[in-house]
């Protein structure tokens, strides 16, 4: 297992951190999220360098190289149409990660502080996985600390209260 990396102030996307998510209609066996690292943030550039070093170590230890991994089996992605000038890291863990507030107090889903678009600090590492479905380089998520609010991703719930009529009792 590789050395844990702490990355500060990353945007959180697709968080399924309080309960396991669903993939293609089936329950996922992991708590998951996608981390969005800003390529113009010096701390994120430094973290990406550490990530690249860990992945290079995995290549050497497993006698593999980047070309051996299909795009969907590699957890680090370059920017996408939704996230320009960013690196994306898909993280997960079969055990629920530690989720805390700025003061290190535990957070619950009902606190509504962890959402797609907020900024968090995370502890992650990387590992190699070779099973019947192919070779993977994946990332473990150990902990999430709320850092600050951000613009929420997506549209959120729509209030349609005014579209209903009053009902006489």
Number of domains: 1
CATH superfamily: Nucleic acid-binding proteins
Total helices: the number is: 1
> Under CATH, the topology is which?
OB fold (Dihydrolipoamide Acetyltransferase, E2P)
Helix content: 10-25%
Mean pLDDT: 86
Distance, first to last CA: 65 Å
What is the CATH level 1 assignment? Mainly Beta
Q: Indicate the CATH architecture.
A: Beta Barrel
Write the layout of secondary structure elements.
Layout (H helix, E strand, L loop, with lengths): L4 E12 L5 E2 L2 E2 L3 E8 L3 H21 L13 E2 L8 E8 L4 E3 L18 E13 L2 E15 L21
Parallel strand pairs: 7-9
Antiparallel strand pairs: 1-4, 1-8, 2-3, 4-6, 5-6, 8-9
How is this structure best described in words?
It is a single chain. This protein has one helix at residues 42-62, and strands at 5-16, 22-23, 26-27, 31-38, 76-77, 86-93, 98-100, 119-131, 134-148. Strand 2 (22-23) and strand 3 form a beta hairpin. A 7-stranded mixed sheet has the order 5-6-4-1-8-9-7, with helices on one face. Strands 2-3 form a two-stranded antiparallel sheet. 12% of the residues lie in helices and 38% in strands. It has a single domain, classed as Nucleic acid-binding proteins (OB fold (Dihydrolipoamide Acetyltransferase, E2P), Beta Barrel), CATH 2.40.50.140. The protein is mainly β and 169 residues long. The protein is built from 1 helix and 9 strands; from the N terminus they run E-E-E-E-H-E-E-E-E-E.
